[in-house]
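Incident review: delayed structure delivery

Summary: a single-chain prediction request sat in the queue longer than the usual turnaround. Root cause was a stuck worker, restarted by the on-call engineer. No data loss occurred. The affected request and its eventual output are reproduced below so the record is complete for anyone auditing the incident later.

Affected input:
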Amino acid sequence: MFSKKAATLSKNTIRWRSQEPSRLETFSDAVFAFAVTLIIVSLEVPKSFDELFETMKGFVSFGVCFALLFLIWNNQNIFFRRFGLADAYVTFLNGVLLFLVLIYTYPLKFLFTLIFSGDNTYLSHGEKLSMIRTDQVPTLMYVYNTGYVLIYLLFYLMYRHAQNNAEKLELTAYELFATRSQMYMNLLNGLIGVIAILLTFVLPDNVKGASGYVYFLLMFAYPVFFSLRGRKSRKLFATTA
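Output delivered after worker restart:
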């Protein structure tokens, strides 16, 4: 009975085919580290309480940006650990992903600084200036939403490539099921980004920024998605996905 249970557990687990980081992953880690450096709140020690207060306001936006970069890095890390793929196609997709991470670091920082600033202003030599005009909000949303869609599209293509190489990677039925679950999850994220783009297009000019609220759908989409996949996993493999 013990051996049968052990065999089931072994069959219904996801193997890590790569234990040590490759040169591609090491380069990727360096890029992510550089991106985190770019979103650091401040490189200078505040010289006055006003400067300190302005710096403290930036910690929340820094925390959110750091969390988002960490999620992207973790998704990428899990992919390489699971499959150990480093062929030309994966290298290309990973290169595009790193390019997007660097390109979107400043827009990401600006967006969340704007959200958490509270009054759409910043101090410059003691003078309060506006961070963004109303007519510039749609462009900001298009930039952010497009980046979100592209990043999850790249993850979808990476997992689809792993699925197409299932025989070469010797994926078990459970691993193939988990790979497809990741594919569908990435598509779900991309779809929500597309909805945000469409909302930005159709909403009135003065409320186009509200299209960002569509990302709160993830709070409901994820539990529903994993509940459905978990139910199917229990049916197929007598375990949860």
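Verification: The radius of gyration is 21 Å.
Action items: add queue-age alerting; document worker restart procedure.
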